[in-house]
Amino acid sequence: MQRTHRPLTTALMLASGLLLASTTLLTSGCLAVAAGAGAGTVAYVRGELQSSLNGSLAQCTRATDKAIKQLKFAKIEEKSDALTSDIVARTAEDKRVEVKLTTDNDHVVKVSIRVGIFGDSRISEAVLERIKANL
Q1: DSSP labels, 12-59
Q2: Among 58, 88, 116, 117, which is disulfide-ready with 77 (CB 3.0 to 4.6 Å)?
Q3: Distance (Å, rounded) from C-alpha 13 to C-alpha 62?
């Protein structure tokens, strides 16, 4: 009587499929975009759009304020100092939009945009494009 190992083979295939599926779910959205645009690269990392802008912190803050108004978001909060600016707004769908601007010199500003808890690349990209248009 020959013994087959089908249950073991099936279990191994199932386990590898689950591992592949969970890896895909965990890593999706970690890096969706990496392209050259304007002042630097644009990266969408774990729900947050990151880029850099040419200009001073004051110029980028004004451009962000204008973008928020143009998109008809409700501005909730703004905090600024000499090196950072943090602007929080809400969309008509009540999604939280946070734009963080950081600089260590007068020529380049790092911008990070997060929409909601998990991010929304479409809204984040729209905000970034409006900021760039207003610079």
Answers
A1: HHHHHHHHHHHHHHHHTTSS--EEEETTEEEEEETTEEEEEEES-HHH
A2: 88
A3: 56
Task: List the chain domain ranges.
Answer: 30-134
Contacts of 110 (CB under 8 A, 6+ apart): 50, 51, 52, 101, 102, 103
Could you read off the pLDDT of 50-104 as tens digits, one per residue? 999 999 999 999 999 999 999 999 999 999 999 999 999 999 999 999 999 999 8
pTM above 0.85? no
Q: What is the CATH number of domain 30-134?
A: 3.30.310.80
